[in-house]
Write a structure and sequence with these properties.
Helix content is about 0%, strand content about 55%. With about 110 residues, the protein is mostly beta strands. A hairpin with a 5-residue loop joins β5 and β6. The protein is globular.
Length: about 110
Amino acid sequence: EVQLQASGGGLVQPGGSLKLSCAASGFTFGDYDMTWVRQAPGKGPESVSVMTHDGTKYYADSVRGRFTISRDNAKNTLSLQMNSLKFEDTAVYFCATVAKYWGNGTQVTVSS
């Protein structure tokens, strides 16, 4: 059974930081390109960052310079370090493989 378990969300003030983690199981993690997708209330999903199986990283313009994606293929984990958080970063964040598997989400709320 494929599982992608995201964690690390919470409530943070603008300018603060959070680190999201995703524990993957049930598939060969190191073979897949991975992504963090977020969905804000009333909006469609947005892929904020992708890390390919061979380590190339991509970022949406909205988060470039503030978010950092990383992965540990030995531990089957994907992470997202989020700094300088803004109100508009408020969303449910999902960990997913590109185009196949989705996990549960973790809520990130940026509020003063």
